[in-house]
Amino acid sequence: MPKYHYITVSEALNDLKSRGYAEDFNLRPYCLECPRLQLELGAGEFAVDEVYRFEGPSDPADNAVVYAVSSDKGVKGVLVDAYGTYADSVTPEMARKLKIDSQD
What we know:
Strand order of the largest sheet: 3-2-1-6-5-4
Number of domains: 1
Number of helices: 2
Largest sheet: 6 strands, mixed
Structural class: alpha+beta
């Protein structure tokens, strides 16, 4: 898994998009959703290629994680989430796939 160093979330998103991670994913309890393509990917249908964590200097609400995701359908995109936001609202399979710590 290649690692890059980014200072900001927007820097990471811009670079990932330039490297082909063009779609935007939303996290749903049972899947990743790409509204533009009307596509839903279950835990077994995508891979997390890269993960970048960002911590706000003073406000925990500024903490975010950026996932670079590729699917078995040939779709590549990004998922942006706050640390642990969805830990209690996704299936165990999705939590394991995204390595969300459900013990928050």
